[in-house]
Write a structure and sequence with these properties.
single chain, 169 residues, mainly beta, 2 domains, two-stranded antiparallel ribbon, 2 helices, 7 strands, elongated
Length: 169
């Protein structure tokens, strides 16, 4: 959804229909579930604030099973007109929530996709109590109980084990 910045009225624009952005993401397996955004002009800047909820396929970091993750992103972005001096723009520490628009047009789909991507977990888990994979046979411990014997600890870590024992006394 392209928004002409110069046509934004002072009270702004509210977008709450996820179907208005279809397709919202470049990856067709991602699904935009809910959207509640307020786009407000601030001089030549534009503020986009609100919430985005999406379902994104992820791979569990423990058991490697695919699962649909629900992502809720809080959006609070200031968009500035891209400077005509070139691509290199110096941003400070306070500019982490700043992005740019070009040719008086704001691509709302790009903002939604960026904010959703930034809200993805660093280590996705299919569930909090995921038991992961067996280090011996590689079986998924969530599906079947593993009968493998525990592996012996790495002998290179023996000094640390002894250190822990000495520190307890």
């Amino acid at each position: 959804m392209m928004i002409k910045v110069s046509d934004l009225e002072e009270q702004g624009l509210a977008v709450s229909d996820p179907h208005a952005l279809e397709p919202a993401f470049s990856d067709p397996s991602w699904r935009l579930d809910a959207l509640d955004l307020q786009i407000s002009p601030d001089g030549v800047d534009v503020l986009v604030q609100g919430r985005v909820t999406a379902t994104v396929p992820q791979t569990c970091g423990r058991c490697l099973e695919a699962f649909p993750a629900r992502v809720e992103a809080r959006v609070d972005v200031r968009l500035l007109p891209r400077p005509v001096t070139g691509d290199s723009v110096k941003l400070g520490a306070d500019d982490l929530d700043v992005d740019f628009y070009t040719n008086d047009e704001l691509d709302l789909k790009r903002v939604v996709e960026t904010e959703t991507t930034l809200a993805l977990p660093m280590k996705p888990l299919c569930r909090e109590d995921c038991r992961g994979l067996c280090p011996a046979c590689g079986g998924n411990r969530n599906l079947v109980p593993c009968a493998c014997a525990e592996r012996a600890p790495d002998p290179r870590l023996a000094a640390l084990r002894d250190l822990a024992t000495r520190l307890r006394h």
